[in-house]
Design a protein that fits this description.
Layout lengths: L1 H34 L4 H32 L1
Length: 72
């Protein structure tokens, strides 16, 4: 059981790192969009990053539920 908790905690840390990287990328895209608000390429990149952020947040939530189950 301890192995499962350790694995989930590693996955959780990796997911948080991924989330932080995606937020930095999103901030960069938002900054670029301020100077060029009609750039279709930037809007496409923003949609992709927003989708990746949602997926990562769902992963984090899923991992948290597994950690809580293992600790119970």
């Amino acid at each position: 059981m301890n192995d499962y908790i350790n694995r989930y905690q590693r996955q959780y840390k990796n997911a948080l790192k991924t989330y932080e990287k995606l937020e930095k990328i999103k901030a960069e895209i938002d900054f670029k969009l301020k100077s060029n608000p009609v750039c279709s390429h930037l809007h496409k990149d923003l949609r992709t990053v927003n989708l990746d952020i949602k997926i990562t947040l769902n992963e984090i939530e899923h991992i948290e539920s597994h950690i809580h189950q293992c600790e119970s």
